[in-house]
Amino acid sequence: xxxxxxxxxxxxxxxxxxxxxxxxxxxxxxxxxxxxxxxxxxxxxxxxxxxxxxxxxxxxxxxxxxxxxxxxxxxxxxxxxxxxxxxxxxxxxxxxxxxxxxxxxxxxxxxxxxxxxxxxxxxxxxxxxxxxxxxxxxxxxxxxxxxxxxxxxxxxxxxxxxxxxxxxxxxxxxxxxxxxxxxxxxxxxxxxxxxxxxxxxxxxxxxxxxxxxxxxxxxxxxxxxxxxxxxxxxxxxxxxxxxxxxxxxxxxxxxxxxxxxxxxxxxxxxxxxxxxxxxxxxxxxxxxxxxxxxxxxxxxxxxxxxxxxxxxxxxxxxxxxxxxxxxxxxxxxxxxxxxxxxxxxxxxxxxxxxxxxxxxxxxxxxxxxxxxxxxxxxxxxxxxxxxxxxxxxxxxxxxxxxxxxxxxxxxxxxxxxxxxxx
Length: 422
Ligand code: ZN
Prior knowledge:
Blueprint: H1 6-9, H2 13-34, H3 36-44, H4 66-71, E1 85-89, E2 101-104, H5 105-121, E3 129-132, H6 142-152, E4 155-157, H7 164-174, E5 178-181, H8 183-195, E6 207-211, H9 217-227, E7 230-235, E8 246-248, E9 255-257, E10 262-267, E11 280-287, E12 298-307, E13 319-320, E14 325-326, E15 331-333, E16 336-338, H10 340-348, E17 353-362, E18 370-377, H11 379-383, H12 386-404, E19 408-414
Parallel strand pairs: 3-4, 3-5, 5-6, 6-7, 18-19
Antiparallel strand pairs: 1-2, 7-8, 8-9, 9-13, 10-11, 11-12, 12-13, 12-14, 15-16, 17-18
The structure holds zinc ion.
């Protein structure tokens, strides 16, 4: 099976541990010396960077959370001067109290290799034509596919958000061999193909590289069986690199984590206690090589299981199970992350609504998944005229759209009495 960087990807575990140990000490020192936030955290915990000598000592370092990143917006978490930063990215869905992540040229080079590792690992070569059907505007990781494909020599068609019919036309005419998209968009294209009676065998597509949202095994099997392609998962964390933290290999038995750059741990999300390999919990990552935006023990909120045992593909890098659930209430709709804090913040700016609300996603297996939010409103609002309520719904709709970047269906409902404490 093809391996892009065999020296690292098949490195003996002992040598990998040594490499991680060495890199951990460097990143801890850099974070301590250059990021006030980490210096404060270490000092408060009575910890010196010299105390972190091996991976065993890692658990003494306090966690970093998304809240920390928000509180240190914009540049508080940066470990290099801005002149060394060549890319600034901000995850969508976090307008309002956002975060911004910086990358040095070196960071981008590493990132480019990581996605190339995934591509090469699933058999993509210079003979392939990769149709990238991610939303280049909303999903900033999309451009990564272009740059990493160049490294391999494959051709890229940035089809972006063209409708399914156009995607199919491109696929057929250009003889695309790889589709990179969200799994839900792939399903949508597949459905359109079935509606139009297009036989998948008339296309040249062999491989699907899917990510940026959770997809259960049923979807995976459905796509493979009905399209006749191999579907692989690529995983990323927007606060580190997305995509590119991990990717499936041809063995399709979990996603290899690029442990030479990211150190994984699994914790119990409630207690923060470290869990044994093989136990399901929240994934915590420490960046080992990141220059601009080092993160120590970053809580990803993604729930998975680590599998350190060797893989039949020959890679020694540990694998993680596909992420299907989160330890927070974040939901993903059409590849866009919607955070509960964000929704609450928007609701707080309106009188007489919230804080109670429920969300639901009408799954349409495609681009048109619709987020619906039912918001509790005061008795006064509920007994006001329909015209007034409609005005309020429209205003909330607009504010939510601005805040999370998605069109949201807004409903108002009578607040449960227990939630209406003064
Ligand atoms: Zn493997």
